[in-house]
From TrEMBL:
Keywords: 4Fe-4S, Carbohydrate metabolism, Gluconate utilization, Iron, Iron-sulfur, Lyase, Metal-binding. This is Phosphogluconate dehydratase. GO terms for biological process: D-gluconate metabolic process; Entner-Doudoroff pathway through 6-phosphogluconate. Gene3D superfamilies: IlvD/EDD C-terminal domain-like (3.50.30.80). It comes from Croceibacterium mercuriale.
Length: 604
């Protein structure tokens, strides 16, 4: 691409060079596996094959004789998660739409799908990050049946898309496509939801009032409307070309959503090995598409969780990318989107203003994305610089035009800020991520005495007791992958937000995660190395002066940590199944590599 920005090219070249051996090994394995599984009538003995289509009904003969491609469905359906509830209806519909083009569909298997919104602040949250590894393993188990010519992934939320990618990439000779169910319609204004949460944290609103507010926000099927990890997942899939263009946020239950699911199913029949347009996932996910995912994350102010997820799924494809790469990209990529919690508008308003088609078009025009990648649809990523619509009931795509609302979406020539939404901070306390897109620039630097905690509850108790009524850097440690599974610390946001609103300079430093909905309080998160096992956070003491600055990229203390011993490690907690995840905690690698046990233990 002739107009590619030099920083994008420089980072891509570095990732390619760093990944040379691992990527070559991955592609060699995919070619070998693809050849071995080319013909299921050869790969599977008759008894095995008969087991595989015994319940296929009218599709049995087609599957037995390989009359057409057989699409395997990996579903994350459950009806506890609002975003995944619509998936109940998808497989029966997809089977009908597959038959229209001479193909078949089978549900290959299901993955667990937990909702971080349900488990926030509870013991179950300590299973959240490692659920990504479980989802990847479940995907591998499902695809091990070797019955399929392509794969449809039904999943959208936090750990689910990265887990599906990690598992699916180990079967990368198969074409694979993600199918969104879309965003729920807009509920109450996000600022109102935030206001009630802070009132509750101050004891000025009742639980009944808080529940009523939350129920008016999370009110129907579909992805939550704030721009957190789930919606960042869907953005990332667009930037990599792994779903139908513009399919991310179209509301459930609409004719356009149904048309997109139908087109997705039939597209999977076209891009198989024998369809004349073979597009295996292993070739769609390469160094360039991974860089595109990071660029999209930065340009839209997306979830910090992807500082873990992108390195993790990239490793599954033999691609090695790190936070230095992300930081350099952030300095080159402007912020084009301010969707809540980075602004007042939600993803429906973002979509109505032009959505991801607008963002892709602007980034391509500015030379900030690789156009020439293999995608699931179209000649290149240019096909994703469009928005879907129904032209007399026929699915079509068109240019999104100018931004319909520059409070949420701007062109690259007039961005919200000239750099992306994430900064690498580092120093004698380690390396961490600072999400700048949600924080007022006047608060990008905080230097204050610290107060050290080991739990969210302890922070809340100290707040209630009036012990944090001052300039303070709140340190919450022993929250990394090896300590307790790296839970999100979302319940800290209202408490710290109240302190900030009272005029104090407040910051958070933690080796844990913050939600994709983390907002206005400056924070260094994912601090690595984590406190457990010798990370410097383990040697901080109350009152040490800590400096956190996104302006100069520093995270440090004036205290001499070399003379101190590590604080005692809190005991491992049992209950809610946490004891069953001990092997994941013991095997996990550092946050910058993705905080994954599965890939670390596999030597990837």
């Amino acid at each position: 691409m002739s107009n590619l920005h030099p920083a994008i090219q420089r980072v891509t070249d570095r990732v390619i060079e760093r990944s040379r051996a691992s990527r070559a090994a991955y592609l060699a394995l995919m070619r070998e596996e693809g050849d071995r599984h080319r013909d299921r009538n050869v790969a599977l003995p008759c008894s095995n094959l008969a087991h595989g289509f015994a319940a296929a009904g009218e599709d049995k003969a087609s599957i037995a004789t390989m009359r057409g491609p057989n699409i395997g469905i990996i579903t994350a359906y459950n009806d506890t998660i609002s975003s995944h509830q619509p998936y109940a209806a998808y497989p029966p519909q997809m089977k009908i739409w597959a038959r229209e083009v001479g193909a078949t569909c089978q549900v290959a298997g299901a993955t667990p799908a937990m909702c971080d919104g349900v488990t926030q602040g509870t013991d179950g949250m300590e299973l959240s990050l490692f659920s990504r590894d479980v989802i990847a393993l479940s995907t591998a188990v499902s695809l091990s049946h070797a019955m399929y010519d392509s794969v449809a992934h039904l999943g959208m939320c936090d750990k689910i898309v990265p887990g599906l990618l990690m598992g699916g990439l180990r079967f990368g000779w198969l074409p694979q496509l993600f199918i969104s169910a879309g965003a729920m319609p807009t509920g109450i204004a996000n600022k109102e939801k935030q206001r009630i949460r802070q009132l509750y944290a101050e004891g000025k609103a009742t639980r009944a009032e808080l529940l009523e507010s939350e129920s008016r926000s999370y009110h129907s099927p579909g992805v939550c409307t704030f721009y957190g990890t789930a919606n960042s997942n869907l953005m990332m899939l667009e930037m990599m070309g792994l779903q139908m263009p513009g399919a991310a946020y179209i509301n459930p239950g609409t004719p356009l959503r149904q048309a997109l699911v139908r087109a997705s199913t039939q597209r999977l029949a076209e891009i198989g090995r024998d369809g004349g347009d073979y597009r295996p996932l292993a070739e769609c996910v390469d160094e360039r598409s991974v860089v595109n995912a990071v660029v999209g994350l930065l340009a839209t102010g997306g979830s910090t969780n992807h500082a873990l997820h992108i390195p993790a799924f990239a490793r599954a494809a033999g691609v090695l990318i790190d936070w230095d790469d992300m930081a350099e990209l952030s300095r080159a990529v402007p912020l084009l989107v301010r969707a809540y919690p980075n602004g007042a508008k939600d993803v429906n308003q973002f979509q109505n203003a032009g959505g991801l088609g607008f963002v892709v078009r602007e980034l391509l025009d500015a030379g900030l994305l690789h156009r020439d990648i293999m995608t699931t649809f179209g000649d290149d990523l240019g096909a994703f610089a469009q928005e879907p619509w129904l032209d007399d009931e026929t699915l079509a795509w068109r240019d999104p035009g100018p931004s319909g609302d520059e409070e949420v979406l701007r062109p690259h020539s007039a961005p919200f800020q000239p750099e992306g939404g994430m900064v690498l901070v580092q120093g004698n306390l380690g390396r961490g991520c600072f999400k700048t897109s949600a924080v007022d620039p006047s608060r990008w630097t905080v230097e204050a005495p610290c107060r050290v905690f080991h739990t969210q509850k302890a922070v809340a108790d100290a707040f209630a007791a009036g012990e944090l009524e001052r300039d303070v850097v709140v340190v919450v440690r022993f929250q990394g992958p090896r300590a307790n599974g790296m839970p999100e610390l979302h319940k800290l946001t209202p408490v710290l937000g109240v302190l900030q609103d009272r005029g104090f300079n407040v910051a958070l430093v933690t080796d844990g995660r913050m939600s994709g909905a983390s907002g206005k309080v400056p924070a260094a998160i994912h601090v690595s190395p984590e406190a457990l096992g010798g990370g410097p956070l383990a040697r901080l003491r109350d009152g040490d002066i800590v400096r956190l600055s996104a302006e100069d990229g520093t995270l440090g203390t004036t205290a001499d940590l070399s003379l101190r011993e590590d604080a005692p490690t809190p005991p491992s907690e049992s209950g809610t199944g946490r004891e069953l995840f001990a092997m994941f905690r013991h095997g996990a690698d550092e946050a910058e590599k993705g905080g994954t046990a599965m890939l670390a233990m596999a030597g990837l």
